[in-house]
Write a structure and sequence with these properties.
single chain, mainly alpha, two-stranded antiparallel sheet, 8 helices, 2 strands
Length: about 130
């Protein structure tokens, strides 16, 4: 339904649903559409309520928007994996992807860009230092 509304140009309806009903799917889709139009402040305002409650998915989207706004260092600090997340390869990969978007040099590890100081052994092929 969200995709259909976007295809029909109904982003304002999605924004309203996100605000009035707290619908994350509407908020995320509308925020991405707003970013594509260069409306970063509106996009952040839309996902802020979800980020404020500590929802990790919203934090990642907020970081993406912040990177687009030129606030990459702050964005990366916000989503940097904590020790409990270091065992999750998906988290390390997503963080590395954001680092790449921020155009920060990171070492290549088996075709996956990863940060040794963040991902540690989880980003390195077995037997690598």
């Amino acid at each position: 339904m969200v995709r259909t509304l976007l295809d029909l140009g109904q982003v304002e309806l999605l924004i309203r649903a996100a605000r009035e009903r707290g619908d994350w799917n509407c908020a995320e889709a509308a925020a991405r559409d707003l970013c594509a139009a260069g409306e970063f402040d509106r996009a952040l305002a839309l996902v802020d309520p979800f980020t404020d409650i500590g929802w990790r998915a919203a934090e990642w989207v907020t970081a993406e928007i912040m990177i687009l706004r030129g606030e990459g260092d702050e964005a990366l600090a916000m989503v940097r994996p904590d020790p409990a997340e270091l065992g999750d390869g998906h988290v390390c990969a997503r963080y590395a992807e954001l680092r790449t978007r921020h155009r920060t040099e990171t070492p290549q590890v088996s075709g996956l860009r990863c940060l040794p100081d963040v991902c540690g052994e989880y980003g390195s092929p077995e037997g690598s230092p």
